[in-house]
Design goal:
The protein contains seven helices and no strands. It has one domain: HPT domain (Four Helix Bundle (Hemerythrin (Met), subunit A)), CATH 1.20.120.160. The chain is mostly helical and about 210 residues long. The radius of gyration is 26 Å and the shape is elongated.
């Protein structure tokens, strides 16, 4: 395996784009003497294609409000991005994965409405009742509970789903922007490295002539 790792102070690298440990691990898989980084470059090129297709599929799932599909796609692209070391896309996709499951973006606990909106909904869903009407309402609620009825208002569930979609929209936008930066850097990295190899070959040829 080749020692083609890049350093934290590499002039080509904006350290905020890549997880250097993950990317250097990928570069270490190139064959010894493979100055073109053929193996890792193929993996990166495949990642580019996967990312473009997955983002397009995410757009379709978002338009269809398919949270389950968004979660699955987020999980997939999270893993692909982690392999390359594209850490910010990985982070966005991780949050999309959780939000698609109606969990908080950090994966801890279920997603909920803002307290102010939830309080307003609770008030709207509890109109003032006369004593007799209240007794009748309590009886119906008890009967519903015995039948295993859904105690959460459908309106609130819909609003939680919409909140998840709103948050996913932000993550999708950010993820695409971060992917573009990573793609530009990675293409530049491989092209610049190949140009350096060509220059070395030209220098060797000139030395032979001398």
């Amino acid at each position: 395996m080749a020692d083609n790792s890049i350093e934290h102070d590499d002039d080509l690298l904006d350290n905020d784009i890549l997880d250097l440990e993950a990317f250097n691990q990928l570069l270490s898989m190139d064959d010894e003497g493979d100055d073109d980084h053929g193996f890792s470059k193929d993996i990166v090129d495949n990642y580019f294609e996967q990312a473009r297709v997955t983002f397009a599929d995410m757009d379709k799932a978002f338009a269809a409000k398919d949270l389950t599909k968004l979660s699955t796609l987020g999980h997939f692209l999270k893993g692909s991005s982690a392999t390359i070391g594209v850490k910010k896309v990985q982070e966005c996709c991780k949050r999309i994965q959780y939000l698609g499951k109606l969990m908080n973006p950090d994966g801890v606990g279920q997603l909920a409405l803002d307290k102010g909106l939830k309080s307003s909904l609770d008030k709207d869903s509890k109109p003032t009742l006369s004593k007799d009407a209240k007794s009748s309402s309590d009886s119906k609620q008890a009967a519903s509970s015995e039948k295993g009825g859904d105690t959460a208002p459908r309106e609130m569930q819909d609003l939680v789903s919409q909140r998840a979609l709103n948050l996913i929209a932000v993550e999708l936008k950010t993820g695409k922007e971060e992917y573009k930066k990573a793609e530009e850097f990675l293409r530049f990295f491989y092209e610049a490295d190949m140009d350096d190899d060509d220059d070395d070959e030209d220098d060797d040829a000139d030395d032979d002539k001398d």
